[in-house]
Structure prediction request, 757 residues.
Amino acid sequence: MALIPRSWSVLLAAFLYSSTASAIDPFLIKDIRVEGIQRTEAGTVFSYLPVKVGDTMNDEKAAQAIRALFATGFFRDVTLEVDGATLVVVVQERPSIAQIDFTGTKEFDKDALLKGMRQIGLAEGRIFDKSVVDRAEQELKRQYLSRGKYAAEVSTTITPLERNRVSINFGVVEGESSKIRQVSIIGAKAFTEKQLLGLFYLREPGMMTWFSKQDQYSRQKLSADLETLRSYYQDRGYLEFNIDSTQVSITPDKKEIYITIGITEGEKYTVSEVKVGGQLLIPEEEVRKLISVKPGEVFSRVKLTESTKKINDRLGNDGYAFANVNAAPELNKDKKEAAFTFFIDPGRRVYVRRINVAGNTRTRDEVVRREMRQVEGGWYAVDKITQSRQRLDRLSYFNEVSIETPAVQGTTDQVDVNVTVVEKPTGSILLGAGFGSGTGAVVTTSISQNNIFGSGKHVSAGINTSKIQSLYSLSYTDPYFTVDGISLGYDLYHRKVDAASSGLGQYQTQTTGGGFRFGVPITDIDTIVYGLGVEKTHITTFPTSPLFYTDYVNTFGASTTNLIANIGWGRNSLDSMIYPTSGSNHRVFVEGSEGSLRYYRASYQYQRYFSLSRDYTLMLNGELGYGDGFGGKPLPFFKNYFAGGVSSVRGYKLNTIAPRDTNGDPRGGNRKAVANTEFLFPFPGLTNDKSARLAAFFDVGMVTDNKYDFGELRYSTGVSILWVSPFGPLKVSFAKPLTNKIEDRKQAFQFTFGGTF
Prediction:
């Protein structure tokens, strides 16, 4: 039997109940029987019938009964029959949806499509409705159009199955994305069209757009670009800037798109006055310090938004979760000036009733709750909510962390804090491979679990081998050994170093050790680490080894056992660990040894990023190292410092900037100083792609014995490329050494590449 769309059902229903009404003579209903049902329960039919046993059936009630059953959407045909004093309801059920599938959909994830279909009423197990299927097909087409795939074709196949079910398949031929051939801005006077188009993510085909896909039209990305354009003007005083029109036209073959944007710049406004009004719960002087907008300056929307947010957050820190701050403008169009009054309505002060955690199917509640800086029963505080979210993000246990603070119904002074997380796999078995210009081939194997049994504890074991070094390690860390957040960790390792393979002197070391460490958090960004361990080292020399090494082994022995203690301090305020643009990173580390070897080493690193603009960043890095022996023993030569290489002073071979032995090979020194300056900027054609960027750099460094000798400094300059590729990070540098000493070992091209697969 053919499937009847709902639009026909209304006409059919009208016909049925009108014809049935004329065929039924009034009678007293003694029984009701339902026929034709397969999935629907008889009780469901009875619940929708407007008549029951004992009622008198007539034309009007017959029409009402048929109308009510059709309105359920469960049936495609309904008739009423009379069997003596029994009312017989005969129905034909609509089929149910057994399966929904997609073929040819590469642009969208299948699970996301099924979720979208469910939102418009199409899902497995539901009653089949052709009108809903048609609407779903049109929505799928619209989604492809929003991605710039104007040639996409969508066809729907409905296949009847046994037991009155159907299977629905959406077949898609996506075709090629339409490419942007031209983007034009009409009406720009204060800025050049080229300057404005440089702000856009969408752009005309260029050198790298085949990779970035920025020449493929997307409605959402165009909307974001228009908002960027609006912000650019309004941040530079054009308060009345307006986008008058946006025209997107496509060629008949649906392959090329032309975008034309019409704008009116308006006049440039300056700020004439800033006033504060409303209910001030904090001193006006403090409020004014939070306002970035200053009289005499060119109007800036970003400063206005930043000011209202700072005031809101300041009130939020005192418990005013629903504070409202509005900056009302007063325009003087003749003078091209704008005065602003910040009206403050703090609302009621509220406290947190309860913290609720959701989404953590593996991670224990306590692991999430111990990162919360907002506490139950305390006054609501924006800064504590923000700190809590940041700490949960840093755990790396979750793909998403969201915190909402809805008001408690029936109260005016309470909110709940709802923490919702989306967990990600925290265990991994990794095989890694890479290559470095100094280290050669690198092979890594590791197994780790960063959240074992949902407890937040870390366990890992790894193997890392290269031509210079082989390392086998096992570690365990409990980040909350105490309720105050003091961590406890244990480490075991075995390391073999072949110095000759890296161009150093002829010797080998094998070190086996183990120890434990405590991490004490001082603030959210400061941590002090204490460590204590035992290390046994065996040194192997060869007949060709320089006298320096053989004398050391003859004097202090080939095997040593030592107690090693260390302390370190770190402060990390970088805005990103992958693509930093602002913030700093401090590291201080001191190591001392007692036993067969008696020495100490201290190092300090300071790294700072300055955001010069949206696309340009300046990075400064400095490293100092110092070591020496005590108790009549020297600093062991295998604990010496070295410099040079792609992560140090570029343009010089790895570990070759150092004092040399009698054979002319680098043997290292007890003092190290390295400084790097990098000017970071986007890769041409990939302005909005954060996975790749270029840098112009200047490096300087030295390694010496006993004193810092500035005559030993090595300088280099050049350019580097950093690409976080799908296969791992790639870092390439092209450097020109600026010093020219006979013993220098130069290497203009250097790179490292590696990752997991």
In short: The domain at 6-93 is CATH 3.10.20.310 (Ubiquitin-like (UB roll)). Residues 6-23 form the longest helix (18 residues). The chain has 13 helices and 33 strands. The first strand starts at residue 27 and ends at 28.
